[in-house]
Specification:
A 3-stranded antiparallel sheet has the order 3-5-4. The chain has 17 helices and 5 strands. It folds into 3 domains: 91 residues, no CATH class; 75 residues, no CATH class; 151 residues, no CATH class. The chain is globular and about 70 Å long. It is 58% helix and 6% strand. By secondary structure, it is mainly alpha-helical. InterPro entries: GPIID_WHD, NPHP3-like_N, P-loop_NTPase.
Length: 341
């Protein structure tokens, strides 16, 4: 607070709109030796949106290439090894996490605990318990994500002990193949609308911030005929549950299980799902529709639409067609003036 309050008193709430100003305060506080050694962990940098990622990488490069950096402050960054990230960080000490032997020990412990829980629920014999553990270790390829996804879904929880080994042996090792198998299961359910699943996945993949369940319902136009918000939220939760953990809910925020889901949806399912630009286009159309409809003043998605439609319009580029929404984009548009206010 000694570093933050003087700047806040000078600039007020505007201070929090400037990344550079906040970074300067952060670095000054971190370098203060009187408060002891400090560590900062930036986890999964690759999951940031590209603009935020570049801003942060540039600041890290400028700040930590200096020889004057305080010796009592360290930052640990974790990320998948994408080339655009390596360009900035390869000049700093780095390590491939796969090279740590402790990682496999942690995965083995994770599998042991999860299988013990399954064994108790499904009454596994010691033989089945050992076989399940061995298959999980073999197929995990040293990643928590594969094991966690498989064990969290219903593949084993809903499988009798006599079929547990057979079920696991049929599961693919590669994440793409596992995602495909899970999605195929989703789309083969008669009660699930394929269009709804497409809208949910593409919306969650490109939204600027995590949406609440009710916001997602509004963004994807789910259950519009239901008047009560409580009912719409419950029905939307059921849609999300049908996505078999590819989409999850944390603290009422809807998220993709992992960044690799987004990569898979837009890369491997191009014939079935809209591409990334089209997903942004669908979202900006929905945002502008809300901004031009006076009856939507209490819509839960309106705040998101007000703040984020320009971002989605920028990401769409030439794919965006004004069409029936032309009034909002006229030079003397009263609707846009209202948005600006």
């Amino acid at each position: 607070l000694d570093y933050l309050l003087p700047k806040y008193n000078e600039r007020g709430a505007e201070l929090f709109k400037s990344f550079d100003a906040l970074w300067t305060i952060f670095m000054a506080a971190a370098a203060d030796k009187s408060t002891g050694r400090k560590y900062c962990i930036i986890d999964a940098l690759d999951e940031c949106d590209r603009e935020s990622q570049n801003t942060l990488l540039q600041q890290l490069e400028r700040s930590f290439q200096s020889q004057d950096i305080s010796s009592n402050f360290r930052i640990l960054v974790t990320s998948r090894p994408y080339s655009e990230i390596r360009e900035y960080l390869e000049g700093f000490p780095n390590k491939d996490l796969a090279s740590f032997s402790e990682r496999q020990q942690d995965i083995d412990l994770f599998i042991k605990e999860k299988v013990a829980d399954l064994a108790q629920r499904k009454k596994y014999t010691d033989k089945v318990k050992g076989q399940v553990s061995d298959i999980l270790r073999d197929k995990a390829k040293g990643t928590f994500l594969w094991v966690g996804l498989l064990l969290a879904c219903e593949e084993l929880k809903g499988t009798a002990s006599q079929r547990a080994v057979q079920t696991l042996q049929s599961m693919p090792k590669e994440l793409d193949s596992l995602y495909k198998k899970l999605l195929d299961t989703v789309l083969n359910q008669d009660e699930v609308s394929h269009d709804d699943i497409r809208r949910i996945l593409s919306c969650v993949a490109v939204c600027s911030r995590p949406l609440t369940v009710l916001e997602l319902s509004e963004a994807c136009r789910l259950h519009q005929d239901e008047e009560g918000a409580e009912t719409r939220v419950q029905f939307t939760r059921e849609h999300i549950a049908s996505c078999r953990l590819i989409v999850i809910i944390q603290d009422d925020k809807v998220l993709l299980l992992h960044q690799s889901v987004k990569d898979y949806v837009f890369r491997a399912l191009a014939d079935y799902f809209p591409d990334e630009r089209e997903a942004h286009a669908n979202l900006v159309y929905r945002c502008v529709d809300l901004l031009t409809d006076p009856d939507q003043s209490r819509n839960s998605f309106l705040d998101y639409a007000i703040r984020n439609w320009p971002h989605h319009a920028l990401m769409v580029q030439s794919t965006f067609e004004v069409g029936s929404r032309a009034e909002f984009f006229r030079i003397d548009s009263a609707l846009r003036e209202q948005w600006l206010q």
